[in-house]
Amino acid sequence: MVTRRTFGKTVLAGIPASLAWARINSTVHGVRLGACTYSFRDMLRMPVEQRIPATIQALTDCGAGITELFSPTIEAVSGALPGGGGGRPPGAQSGQPVDPKVMQERMRARMNSPEAKKARDDLREWRLSTPMDYFHNVRKKFDDAGIDIYAYTVNYRDDFTDDELGKTFEQAKALGVGIIAASTQLSMMQRLLPFSEKYKIVVAFHGHSNTKDPNEFSSPETFAKAWQMSKYFKTNLDIGHFTAANFDAVAFIKEHHDHITHLHIKDRKRNDGPNMPFGEGDTPIKQVLVLLKETQYPIPALIEYEYRGTGTSVEETKKCMEYMKQALA
């Protein structure tokens, strides 16, 4: 309830009064629940002027008051997106799990094509030339819908120029976020370090389940290397991938919660197994959420819908949100 007194405090804090009434509240027992816009990647086929409002509507329909904004959601060119900018792969209606290794092979094939290389050049040019007002306006659209952009996702590769790296940090500033979530390699840390320190923006490294490659973030030891390098380097823990790599997400969060910015919530099988509907894999989703509830660690839990569902991305993300709410009930 917004009283006259809290209304006054809101205005004095510089927050528009309308937003004080409009915020989507997806906090359950002190745990902030939300969804990554990557969950709605089927919408990436739309022109950007349709894609952004459609994504905002999807988050609203799912009752997600906090999000991690996937950069392709707002970029006007595709940049040879892994997965071709698509949503569910052929046969998704079968409800069978997707093998992450098969998906990775498909991604590599797409990204090495001549069309992909041209798209990558176009994306770089878009990033270098797009004014910051564009990103201010994106933030306003999410604010007007009552959705907090908690982090901005940029998946760095070694083909980024230094100018392009700098622009992504400027864009994060314009979006009003202090965290860039990045799926990247350890070898990129040295290049990202001066930008992170200059802009005072945390880079939260996202891990996967490939423990065989020492250049991939996956294990507690790989994350620790980032923490040791800079106070601006932290971890975006994907508890599904962490479980698939045969690590204990609950124990890791207990021991290293100060280094974790937010969680990606998905369900996977152990031993590098497939993505599964929530509750059907080996990931301790309920135990992790209960831990956040009991400890009140300020770590948001964001759905990253990746299993092969039988419904639309919005329908499946709604199921995931309901599962998390029930786990906290």
Key traits:
329 residues, alpha/beta, eight-stranded parallel barrel
Question: Would you write up a description of this structure?
Answer:
The structure is a single chain. The chain is of the alpha/beta class. The protein has one domain: Alpha-Beta Barrel (TIM Barrel), CATH 3.20.20.150. The chain contains 13 helices and 11 strands. The protein has helices at residues 4-12, 17-22, 48-61, 100-111, 114-129, 132-144, 162-174, 189-199, 220-229, 239-244, 249-256, 285-295, 313-328, and strands spanning 27-28, 31-36, 66-70, 148-153, 179-182, 202-206, 233-238, 260-265, 267-268, 275-276, 301-303. The strands form 2 sheets. An 8-stranded parallel barrel has the order 2-3-4-5-6-7-8-11, surrounded by 6 helices. It has a two-stranded antiparallel ribbon with strand order 9-10. Helix 7 runs parallel beside helix 8 (189-199). The radius of gyration is 19 Å and the shape is globular. The chain starts with a helix and ends with a helix.
